[in-house]
Amino acid sequence: MLPRRVQAELLDGLAATDPVAARSRRDLKRVHRFMRSRTRLVRKMRQLVPAPAKPLRVLELGAGDGTLLLGIARELAPEWPAVELTLLDRLDLVDGATVAEYARHGWTARSSVVDVLDWARAATGSSAPAASRWDLVIANLFLHHFDGPELAVVLEAIAASADELLACEPRRGWRALAGSHLIGVLGANAVTRTDAVLSVRAGFRASELSALWPGTTGWSLQEEPSGAFSHCFRATRRRTQ
Ligand SMILES: C[S@@+](CC[C@H](N)C(=O)[O-])C[C@H]1O[C@@H](n2cnc3c(N)ncnc32)[C@H](O)[C@@H]1O
Fold this sequence. Notes:
By secondary structure, the chain is an alpha/beta fold. It is built from 9 helices and 7 strands; from the N terminus they run ααβαβαβαβαβαααββ. It has helices spanning 19-35, 37-48, 67-76, 96-104, 116-124, 148-161, 174-181, 190-201, 208-212, and strands at 57-61, 84-89, 108-113, 136-140, 164-170, 219-226, 230-237. The chain has a 7-stranded mixed β-sheet. Helix 6 (148-161) links the parallel strand 4 and strand 5. The chain is globular and about 45 Å long. S-adenosylmethionine (SAM) is lined by residues 12, 28, 62-64, 68, 89-91, 115-117, 140-142, 145.
């Protein structure tokens, strides 16, 4: 079995405006098309909340430029109208055109430029504002950036502030590792090629995320492989009658 190893990814060390980083973010969109990330997330989000009774408050952690969720908004908006979406990332990558495109689909998007660990400390602090409650938190290719103790802090903040979490991360295994070494065939640059391998080594398997979830009382947890290379985790707060 591959032991989990978290190492800093090259993209995270580059400035938001660095052309090499911009190219790597474009590579990521190609990887998403290849991995059918949007289709996977739309399916799982529909399962989580088939028919919202009210406009949902959704938070995406590590949202990048916000375009992955934009593709999802285009598909889900008829069933999920008037979503209030917060796109959290430590880099300021969401542009006005993206926000306007969300608005065209009836979703209100705002970006929150903050380190997730600062967000997590604020969300679990005694003065966390009531407005910071989320119907759903999404994390795609994000949680694997953190090792056990940091991850526990982030998961604790999600459990304290949200009713649902959906996370889809790299699956840590030999097949995904082999795939990550072949990502150059999609035209990925050196940063993306290196980070793909690091991501798989930092990915998840079995029940690793469930084991880090802060207590199972009051929550239903589901964790499973998805597609050839992904590993998804879902936590749902049990409704009290
Ligand atoms: C691999 S990208 C994934 C982007 C998007 N979720 C997607 O799937 O296309 C990871 C993102 O996490 C952000 N990130 C990394 N560490 C972070 C941190 N400590 N706090 C907030 N964002 C962070 C990076 O800036 C980057 O945009």
